[in-house]
Amino acid sequence: MSNRRSKARTAALQGLYQWQLMGQDVDKIDIEFIVQDIRGIDHAYFQELLRGVPQRQGELDECLGPFLDRPINEVDPVECAILRIGAFELLCRPEIPYRVVLNEAIELAKRFGAEHGHRYVNGILDKVAQKVRATEFRSRALRRRLQT
Known about the structure:
Keywords: RNA-binding, Transcription, Transcription antitermination, Transcription regulation. By secondary structure, the protein is mostly helical. The protein is built from eight helices and no strands.
């Protein structure tokens, strides 16, 4: 993935964190980022994540729920936002390979999450990916078997 898209994920994480903790309107958050004039990000992708995650929160939380070890509202807010971004990408952006989604989420968790938060994020999103990207998982496993 492009560095611009990685930066968009980082900005979306920050915006979604504000939205989750303070209930701030995503339009206001978007305006804040425009005013800050953050350069080098894929602004359209930032907006897609910033708006798409709240719009589909129920569906995303339902998708994540079976794999969480606690209710979603008890998950660390940073990891929660990362999990929701990852679930959104897995569900809504099938053109992005699941490995890219997982790697980007892990990097966000390493950078912004708790000490071992990246392991938690990886474990949850890996299970979500197996469920929602089953065909992609099977074809990857088949390719690995054929290579050995």
